[in-house]
Amino acid sequence: MTTLQRDPYTTGGGPVTLDRREGPYGEVVLRRRGAGDGAVHEIIANGCFLMDTSDGRSERLLVDAALAALPADRPGPSVLIGGLGVGFSLARAAEEPRWGRITVVERERAVIDWHRAGPLGAVSARALADPRTEVAEGDLLHHLRTAPVRYDALCLDIDNGPGWTVTEDNGGLYSPAGLAGCRERLTPGGVLAVWSARPSAEFEGALRNAGFEGVRTEEIAVARGVPDVVHLGQRAA
C-alpha cells in the first residue's frame, strides 16, 4: 500500500498532489486546492477530473431521490452505492436512519485508503463507522452480476455520465445487458439512480427499453454550463 505523502502545500501555490497511484484501471490522483477550511480535495483518474469536495448537492440527491421513490412503508430498505468517490453519497445515506443496509462498491484501493487513512475521512468517517455500512473493494459490474443479494436501491456514480465513462469497459453498465442486470439486482419496486454531469434523453430511452418504469431526471443547477442530473427508473413492483 502506498502511504499518503506528507502535505507539501505552500500558500499561493497551485493544486497539490497528495497521492498518486497506478491501479488496475490506470492512474488515480488525489489533489488539494486551497488551504484550511476552504481546502477542496479532488480525484483525477487517468487525467480526467472525476469529482471534488466543493459542493456535493447532486451526490446527495442521488441517495435522497432513490429513497423518496421507494414506498414509505418499506422497512429497512437496502442501498448499494456504486463508487465511493469523495464520500458525499455514503455520508448522506448514513445520515438517514431509514436505510437498513448500506453497501459501497469501490474498485480503487487508493480511494478507500484516502477515506480510511487520509483527508477524505473528514467527509466519510462517521458513515464508515456506522454498523450498517459495508465497503466492498471490487468492480461494480462484477458485483452486480454475482452478488447473492438484491437491493432496494442502486445509486451509481462511477463515471461522469452514461456517455462519458472513466474507462471503456464501464460502458457495459449502460448497455441493454448492463441495465437489465441492474433491474434484476433490484427488489420489486426497487429504484435505479444514476448520476450524470449532463442530462441525456438517450439514456432515459435506454432505461425505458430496459423495462424500467417511472423514468425521470432530476437536476441540480451548477455555476456554469449544463446542470448535474440524477436519472431515475423503477423496477415493476
From TrEMBL:
**Record field: transmembrane:** none
Where do the segments described as Disordered lie?
1-21
Give the InterPro entries listed for this entry. SAM-dependent_MTases_sf
> Which Gene3D superfamilies does the protein's record reference?
Vaccinia Virus protein VP39
Q: Which UniProt keywords apply?
A: Polyamine biosynthesis
Protein origin, superkingdom: Bacteria
Name this polypeptide is given: Spermidine synthase
Origin species, per record, is Streptomyces aureoversilis
